[in-house]
Amino acid sequence: MAEKGMIQTVLGHIRPEALGRTLCHEHLHIDSGPLGIATDPCSHHHSKINDPIVMKNLGWIRQYPYYHKPNLSIVDESEAVIEEMKYYKANGGSSIVDNTVIGLNPNVEFLKKVSEQSGVNIIAGTGFYVDITHSDETRKTPSEKLASIMEHDIISGVGTSGIHCGVIGEIGCSWPLTDSERKVLRAAGMTQEHTGCPIIIHPGRNPKAPAEILRILTEAGAKADQIVISHLDRTLLDKESILEFAEMKSYCEFDLFGIETSHYQQEENIDMPSDAQRIERIGWLIDAGFQDKITISHDIHTKHRLMKYGGHGFSHILLNIVPMMKTRQISEDVINKILIENPKKWLAFK
C-alpha cells in the first residue's frame, strides 16, 4: 500500500511532485454495454444500433452515441488507446486516473502495459459501479466484506496480479440511491478510513445526489477533502447550486469536456453544457475562491470520442481547453492548480 503522502500507480509509488498534468476521470479499458443502450424515442434509430462506425454514420453516432451498441465498448481498441497515451505524453500530459471498476470490465494488466509503453502514470480504481451492474453476490455481501475487497486491491493488488489500485472508484450511484449502492458507499467510506486512499464518485443524475452521497461517505468515516464528485457538468446546472455544493469541501469535477452535443440521452430533461459553458462554471468557482477544489477530465468511454474515429481524444483539454481558459482570463497559475496541484493533493494517501 502506498505510504502516507505518496501516490499509488499501476507501476508502483510515486511522489506527488512526479504526477504532473493529470486527467482525473478517464477510461482506457471499458465496456459499458451491460448498462444497455439508451431508450429510443424514434423508431428510425433502432435500425442503426449495430451499423459500422464509418464516415457516413459518424454524424448520427456523435448525436446519439448511446443508441449505437458497438460504440459502448473500447476493450477492443488497445492499440488506439496506447497510441493516444503516447500522444498525450508528447503534448505535456503526465498522468491519468482510470475509473473503470467492477461492472465496467476493468483490466489492470492492460493499464500496466499502457503505462510501460507510453510513460504515462496511471492510477487504477477499485470498487463497484451502479446497481444495474451489481451481481447477486454483491447485493448480498455486507459493507464490511465489500470494503475488504477494495482494501485488498489497494494493499495487496488486484487478484494475484500484484498491481495495486490507487483510488476508490468511480463508485457508481443512481438516483434515487438503491440499497446496494448505499452499502457500496459505506464500504468506500470504511476503505478510505482504513487506507487513506482517495475516493471518486459517479453521482446520480439529480441535483440532490452529490450532497446525499457526501453525507453517507462521511458518516462511514471518509473525509470530504479526499473525495471527488464527478460529472457536475450534468448534475448541478446553476451558479447557486454549484457554489453551495463547493462549500461542502469535496473536489468539484467537470469531466465531460469534449462532449458538445446538448441532447443528453441518459437524462433527456438535462441539456448537456458545451465546453465554453463548462469553463464558465469553473470560472464561477474560481471567482468565489474555490480554485483549490476543481478537477477536470473528459470521461472518455466510447469509441466515437477516440481520435481513431475522428473524436477529440485524450489530449483535447491540453490542446484546446487550456487555450480557451486563457482567453477567458483564467491564469496559468490557476490552470496549473486545476491540472497539477489539486490532483496531487487529492491522490496522495493520507
From TrEMBL:
Residues engaged in binding a divalent metal cation 2: E170, H202, H231
Keyword Protein biosynthesis (UniProt): no
GO MF entries: hydrolase activity, acting on ester bonds; zinc ion binding
Cofactor: a divalent metal cation
Keywords: Hydrolase, Metal-binding
Cofactor: how and how many bound: Binds 2 divalent metal cations per subunit.
CDD domains to which the protein is assigned, alphabetical: PTE
Lineage: superkingdom: Eukaryota
UniProt entry tagged with the keyword Protein biosynthesis: no
Residues that, per the record, bind a divalent metal cation 1: H25, H27, E170, D299
Family per similarity comment: Belongs to the metallo-dependent hydrolases superfamily. Phosphotriesterase family.
Protein name: Uncharacterized protein
Organism expressing this protein natively: Octopus bimaculoides (California two-spotted octopus)
Native organism taxonomy: Eukaryota, Metazoa, Spiralia, Lophotrochozoa, Mollusca
